[in-house]
Specification:
Helix content: 25-40%
CATH architecture of the largest domain: 3-Layer(aba) Sandwich
Strand order of the largest sheet: 3-2-1-4-5-6-7
CATH topology of the largest domain: Rossmann fold
Largest sheet: 7 strands, parallel
CATH class of the largest domain: Alpha Beta
CATH superfamily of the largest domain: Glycogen Phosphorylase B
Number of strands: 13
Strand content: 15-25%
Distance between the termini: 29 Å
Number of helices: 15
Structural class: alpha/beta
Radius of gyration: 20 Å
Order of helices and strands: EHEHEHHEHEHEHEEHEEHEHHEHEHHH
Length: 365
């Protein structure tokens, strides 16, 4: 019998200014490929409606709704009968939605937190619009972008029934090496964040000011007025179809992490896996648990200063640079594809239901 899954997510139709869409696209596509019937429900928001780069995803079924009342009127039957219902972080009115879902759903219910450290920091100040302390124990699963000690904390401090890591992932068909000349020595892609900006200044912009012959790029929306060095190219936005070309046009790419995620650790970003799948060597800030996903010095480089960044750009032989990229790609294809995440999710659902997990083979090319 076909597995029925309903997902309420921030957005699957627009990747503008959020990393949720990329994650949901890969997950829904692979769940569908594994035989699940997936309904994705997205709240109609002006910001995303004006910037939909995938208005009609070709996998599963996507519906746009206007408010909670409309959801309850049109989709109660699907929610009630689904084998699995997921409510994601940052979904508008997500807390009220979760109260309703956990009340009527007859299958497994899950909260999918793509922003776990940020969520917990806000919960420390009080309930947030998409989750509450009282709601957490009502979900059968708390799916988290953050692993490690945070999973124990979710269960012991917040009463989560089962806290399980469901990290971001990459689509191997969309991210792969390309034979092209490097356009930039170092690039960074990420929406502006005040807590990431000091690291961007320290690891990329200071390096650019000190090495005027090197070429740099910063991609992402919402940046304020900044005195960008002349050798730093600014690109406002790249849709996911342009990510592969961007990674492959760099000698190295920079990964930066939000402050809350650094503090929590064990929070790999989707950009980390995308770049690695392209075989582009990664220079990253350090956070606890990084070595769980990549071997430092062999599959990824760590920078704590402009000196570290420039040392990699100027002193690492091309042969070793390429080898680091190849090793990181092998690691990602073996552990961090969208297919891996879909199989893990079905396994967690089976765990709740007390039946053997789906052990469908996971392959990476």
């Amino acid at each position: 019998m076909q597995t029925q899954i309903v997902i309420f997510g921030l957005s699957i139709t627009s990747s503008w200014g959020n990393g949720h869409a990329t994650t949901y696209r890969g997950l829904v596509r692979e769940l569908s490929a594994l035989g699940a019937d997936v309904l994705f429900l997205e709240r109609d928001a002006e910001w995303y409606a004006s910037n939909r780069d995938l208005p009609r995803p070709p996998y599963g079924r996507t519906e746009i709704y206007s408010d909670l009342a409309q959801v309850q009127r049109l989709y109660a039957r699907e929610v009630r009968r689904a084998d699995l219902v997921i409510v994601g972080s940052y979904v508008p009115d997500g807390s009220a939605l979760g109260e309703w879902v956990t009340e009527i759903a007859q299958g497994v219910t899950a909260f999918y937190d793509i922003d776990t450290p940020i969520t917990l920091a806000r919960l420390a100040q009080g309930d947030v619009p998409y989750i509450s302390r009282a709601l957490i124990p009502r979900y059968d699963l708390y799916l988290s972008f953050t692993g490690g000690p945070t999973l124990v904390r979710l269960q012991e401090e917040y009463g989560a029934q089962r806290a399980r890591a469901l990290y971001c992932s990459v689509d191997p068909a969309g991210y792969a090496p390309e034979a092209r000349a490097a356009r930039w020595d170092l690039g960074y892609m990420g929406t502006y964040s005040a807590d990431r900006q000091p690291a961007l200044e320290r690891l990329l912009l200071d390096a650019a000011r000190r090495c005027r012959t090197a070429r740099f790029a910063v991609v992402g929306p919402q940046y304020p007025e900044i005195d960008w060095p002349a050798n730093v190219q600014r690109i406002e936005h790249l849709s996911p179809v342009g990510h592969r070309r961007f990674y492959n046009a760099q000698r190295f790419t920079l990964n930066l992490t939000r402050a809350d995620m650094i503090e929590a650790g064990y929070s790999p970003s989707v950009r980390l896996f995308e770049a690695a799948a392209c075989g582009t060597p990664i220079i990253s800030d350090y956070w606890p648990g990084l070595e769980t996903y990549f071997r430092i010095g062999e599959e990824i480089l760590v920078s704590r200063s402009a000196d570290d960044t420039l040392r990699a750009l100027q002193e690492l032989p091309d042969e070793e640079r390429f080898a680091i990229g190849r090793r990181a790609r092998r690691r990602v294809l073996a552990e961090h594809t969208s297919r891996h995440r879909a199989v893990e999710l079905l396994g967690y659902m089976s765990e709740v239901l007390g039946r053997p997990a789906n052990t469908a083979a996971v392959s990476a090319s």
